[in-house]
Structures are given as C-alpha cells and as structure tokens.
Amino acid sequence: MEMSNTARIAIALCAFGIVVVSLLIGWWSKKKMSSAESFFGSTALFGPVSVGLATMAAAASVFAVMGVPGNFYVLGNTINLWILSSGGFAMSYIILGKKMRAMAEIAPVSTLGDVAALRFENHKGIKLIFAILIFLASIAYLSSQIKGVTVLFGYLLGWSPLTSAIIIFGILIAYTAISGDVGGLMTQAFQGFIMVVAGIILIISFYMITGGMSNAVMAIANTGSITASGITKTFSPNMLDGWGIAKNGTTMAFIIMPMIGLLGQPAILSRMYALKDPRDMPKMGLFASVAHLFVSFLAVVAGMGAMYLVASGKIGPLQNADSAILAFSEYVGVIGQIFTYAAVISAALSTSSMFLTMASGMVAKDVPDALGIKLDPKKQVTIGRIAMIILGIATIAFTLKSGSMVAMLTTLGYGTFITATFPVFVIGLLWKGCSKEGAFFGLLISLIMNIVCMILVNKGISWPGGLPWYMNVIALSIIVTIVVSLFTKGAKGDALDPRVKAAMEL
C-alpha cells in the first residue's frame, strides 16, 4: 500500500497534534495534583464522563484498534464476540463499583495495593506478590504500546524505532511524571474522545463503501480464494457464522474473557475509586460502555471492510493481517486515514500513561510498604516521578532490543492482570469467606504459574481444549483461593473490619 505525501504529512501533523495537546493537558492538570492519592490514583477527583472515556481508552489499547481488525480478517466472526466487552464495563461497575469506591472512603487509597491491604488486614505478602504481578503485566502492556507506535511512525515518516520512541514516549513520560494520574486520566479522556470520533467516521464509511452489512457478507461468503502478488486469501461462509473459524477453545475464551475478564483489568478497577461522586457510578458505566461500543464496532467494520475490499477485488490480499484497518482507512481516503492513525496514537498513549503510573505506584508505594519501609506522601510522589522516568527509559530500551520477547510479554500481560486481581478483588470483595491466607496462596500460585506458563508457551506447549494458557491459571488461582479460605480464618467472616464489611455489603 502506497500512501500519498499529502496524506502522510496530514496524518503526521494530526498525530503530533494529539501528542502536543496531551502534553498541554498534562501540564495544566498538575494544579489538581495535591497528594499521593491524586498522583497515583486520581482518587475521588473526576466526574462520570471523564472517568468513563478514560477507562475505555486505557482498557482498549492498540489491540482494539489494530489487533481486532486483523483478527477479524483471519478468523471472521470469532473476534466479533469481543464486542461483548462493551457490556462488560457496565457489568464490572455493577458488580464491584460501589464496593471499590467505598474503600476510598474508609482510608486513603491511591493504588490497588491499598485496597488489597484494607481488605486483608494489611497482609504484607499479599501486597508484595500483587505488586510484582501488576508491575510485570504493566511493563508488558507498556512495551506493546511502544512497539506499535515505533512501527507506525517508522511507516509514516521513516523514523528509526529509537527516534520514534524517544520523541513520542519522551513527551508522554514528561507529562505523566509532571502531573501523575491526574494528568493521565484527563489525557486519556481526551484520547478516548478521539477514538470515539474515529469510530463514528469509519462506521459511516463502511456502510457507504459496502452498501450495507448484507452486501459485505454476500461478497465475502461467495468469493472463495483470491490470489494477487503471490499472496492468497481464502474466504469461507463459515467465517461469518456465529462463531467464525477459530477452534472451540478460542471461541469459548472470546465469550468468557470480554465480559468476565474486564472485572480483572486494573484499568477498570482503579477507575472505580477515581469517581468523585459515588452516586454517578451508573452513569460512568454507561459512558464507558457506549464509548467502547463505538470503538469495538470500529474494529469490526474495519476488519470486515478490509475483507470486503479484498473479496470484491478493490484491493489485493493483505500481506499482514494487522494492516487490515490501515488498508480499509486508505480506501476511505485522507479523512479516514487521519482519524484511524489518530485513534491508534490515542489508544497507545492512553494505555501507556495508565500503566506507567501504575508501575511507578508499585515501585514507590506498594513494594516499600510491603517490605515495612515507611515513606511520607511527598517522598512517595518524588520516588514515583523518578520511577516513571527510569521505567519509561528502561522499557523503551528493552522494547527496541527484544521484539520477540515483547510479543510474548504482551500475551502474558492480559492474563497476568486477571490472575492477580481475581483472588484479591473479585473473590475478596464478593465473598466474605475469602481469607487472607486464601488470597495469598492464590496470588502465589498465580505468580509461579504465570512464569512457568510463559516458559512453556515459548517452547510451543499446547494446552488442553485449545484454551489460552491464562484461562487455566485463572481457574487454578480461584480454586486455590477458595479451598485455602475454607480451612483458614484470617480477615474473613466475623474477623473482618466492620468498615470493610459494610463496604462489601453495598
């Protein structure tokens, strides 16, 4: 695919505009940063629109904008099940929202580790292992966003990965270190709005180009195989049935993970206590769900649109499935390209700032506290800023030197988040019978099994039923948490802090 110089310049200017506006928002936001709670968690500071858009943007990431269309091009309707995650936002807030927000009224909360400490009587082991798991997964996600942006700017401007990473993520590190999560949340809300606008434009474009969903379906189902430039794309009616052409285990994962998996995503959980007025929790869930619906449908129509263009002979088969959204937006025209690339940049920046802040909070606050090192809030913020800079630079260096490792860690990241948060928050806040011993051993198993599975997956080991490896680890950590809790008594039932017990009953 060849891009005109005019389109290339327009897209580059728009991308830089988003980065610059994000920097200005971050700089302006620093006046709202007044404590460790605001720096690491934006605790009780923002309304439902800002938090809803920020939640969607950070949770979606580059995977939503580029990975999903590519998966649709390969698997068909299997990835369509991912749209279920839009409802998962509202479901997450209904199930855990009030409980998480109430924790911030009991004591100062700035990280998820603080909530875990409140629930489990400040158990040091829980806080330490939880911090390690979240730190590893955060760095994995950050690496994947850096990788995506360096490839994008290399294509647009011919920059080397090092130049792209230093300029784009140097600015991100700067505004995140200046204003912490306060600036991060506000820039994420702005970036989320850009993603929604891009979604509306590409959805309308899809219907204008194809003439409607039925036309696209018929073209794809009746085409068979197409070969051009030595590349063959085979279409099948089965790609467009209810399940696509993925294996049964993969299909099951896409049914379960979008809905239930969001309950275990820190981008969702940490935003529950960022809401200023707890009574706005339903509104926040609605805004996040509707915003994500536009972005998820964007991803589906971009993937199907690329399939339609290939099936109808308007473009040749794609060499790389991940370029599906780029191929579709190029056919739409310059406006479509501008907003597509803007959405990719916005997704990368929003996710990166979220997980950079989260990783620094683990380093500056949760790990020292777990080790018995007491730091006053000002020192925590100072160490957090230093940690952001060091972690940001180190992750850039790691990403540029370890391409294949980054791909493996990205897969590790999503599963690791869920295996870390389910024992502590999903089971811990929904079941008063969950003991601190149960949560600790559930987390310990998660840490060990995540490392073991990463090694096994790298060696090509297949898992029973074709399920992703993290599904097995999630199940095992839940079983261990429940079984151990049944035979132990710490921080459960009558031993619960009355304030925590009241929060859990909301």
What's the layout of helices and strands?
Layout lengths: L4 H25 L6 H6 L6 H28 L8 H23 L5 H8 L4 H34 L3 H50 L2 H9 L3 E4 L2 E4 L13 H13 L5 H7 L8 H31 L12 H9 L1 H37 L6 H25 L1 H28 L5 H23 L10 H18 L11 H7 L2
Antiparallel strand pairs: 1-2
Helix pairs in contact: 1-7, 1-13, 3-7, 3-10, 3-11, 3-13, 4-9, 4-10, 4-11, 4-15, 4-18, 5-6, 6-7, 6-13, 6-14, 6-15, 6-16, 7-11, 7-13, 7-14, 8-11, 11-12, 12-13, 13-14, 15-16, 15-17, 16-17
Tell me what the structure shows:
- With 506 residues, this protein is an all-alpha fold.
- Helix content is 75%, strand content 2%.
- The protein has 18 helices and two strands.
- The chain has helices at 5-29, 36-41, 48-75, 84-106, 112-119, 124-157, 161-210, 213-221, 248-260, 266-272, 281-311, 324-332, 334-370, 377-401, 403-430, 436-458, 469-486, 498-504, and strands at 225-228, 231-234.
- A two-stranded antiparallel ribbon has the order 1-2.
- Strand 1 (225-228) and strand 2 (231-234) form a beta hairpin.
- The longest helix has 50 residues, at 161-210.
